[in-house]
Write the C-alpha cells for this entry.
Amino acid sequence: MKSRGRWLTFGAIVFLTSSFFAVRQWRHASTHVETILTTDYRRGAVSDEVVIAELEAAGPVAVDELRAELRREPTRVDRFQDQALIWLRNQGYNGFSDPRWSPRWALRLRKLHALNALLLLGERAAAARPEVQALQSPSVELGNALSTLRAMSPNNPATISNAVATLQRGGQPERFYLTLSFAKIWTNPPPHLPSLVNLLKDPDDGVRSHAVRNLASYGPVVSNILPQLLPLLEDPSPKVRPQAAYAVGHIAPAEAPRAIRAMLAEQEANDPARANVGWIDLEPYRLYVELGPRARAAVPRLEEELTSQSYQMQAGPIAYALWRVTGETSPRIVEALGKGAESRLQRYQLLSLRGLKEIGPSASNAVPALQRIARDHRVLLRRMAEEALQSITNLPASTR
C-alpha cells in the first residue's frame, strides 16, 4: 500500500509539473484575447458585452490571435498529461477525475471561446474563415462553427438561403444552434426574420426559448410580432414563459401590465424556496428595470426576494429593479448592489454596476467595492466601475 501511495504521489507530481509547463506554453496571446480564451463559460461567468470590450481593446491583432488559437493542436506535453491522467484514474486516484484537468478539454474550451469571439466580430473576422471551416468536425460543436461562418458573411444570398432552409427544415440541433445565435449574426432585423418568428411554434422548447430571446433583442422595432408572442405567455414549458413575458413587455411597453402579471406568476412558479425549476434568470429584473414605476405591482415580490436567503446571488439585480420602480434608495439596496457588482457572474455584475452609476451620490457606501472592481483585469468592468465612482463622488479618477 505504501508503494502504491508513493507511485500515486509521484504521478500527481509529474502531472502537476506537466500542467505548469502546459499553462506556460499556452500564454501566447495578448492580455485582452487571453481574457476571452480563459473565461469559464460553464459557471455562467461570461457576458458578450465583456468579450466585445476586450476585442475592441485588442484591436486588429485579435483576429490573428484567435485564428492562431483555432489552429492550435495538442502538444507532446498535453499528450503526456492526458496519459498521466488516465494512469492515475486506472490506479484508483480520483482527485483528477474532473475533465477540466485534461489539456485536450481545456484546448477545446478555448477554441469555443475563440469561435464566439469571431462570431461577435462578424464580417470583421472574415480572414478567419479557413480556420473555422477546418473545425467542422466532432471535436468542436458544428453549430458553433456554422454560426460563426454565417456571421462572417451575413448578407450573402447563399448564407441567407442556407439559414432559411435550416430554420424551416433543419434537424433539432441545427435549429437550436441557429436560433441561439440569430441576433448575433443579424444584429438588425433581417428580411428573413419571419423564418425565426415561425419557430415560436417549434415542437422543441429550447428552440422556442432561443427564438423568443433573439426576437426580444431587436426591441420595439419588431412589435408587429406581438400577436405571435402573446400565446407563449401560457406555453407549456417553463423555459419559454419567462422569456415570453420579458419579450412582450420589452417590445410592446403598452402591454406592460400583462407582461408584469405573467412574470410575477412565473416567479411564483419558479421560486427556488418552493420549487426546483430554475428557468428564470434576469428576465424579471430586466423587465422591471425597463418599465420603472409602471412595474409597481412587482414591489412586494422584489422586497420579499431582497431579504430572502434563496435569492442572495441575484440580490444586485433585485435591488436595481426595486430602486428603478420605487425611486427610493436605502442602505439595504446599496449594500445589495455593491455585492452584486462583485458577483462572479458577469451579467449580474453589469446590471449592478449600472444601478450604482444611476443612483449616484446616495450609493457612497459602495465606493470600496467599486474601487476594487476598478482594478479588475477586464476592460468593461473597470470602465463601468470608474463611471459609477465618477457618478457617486463627482471626482475624476486621478483625484480619488
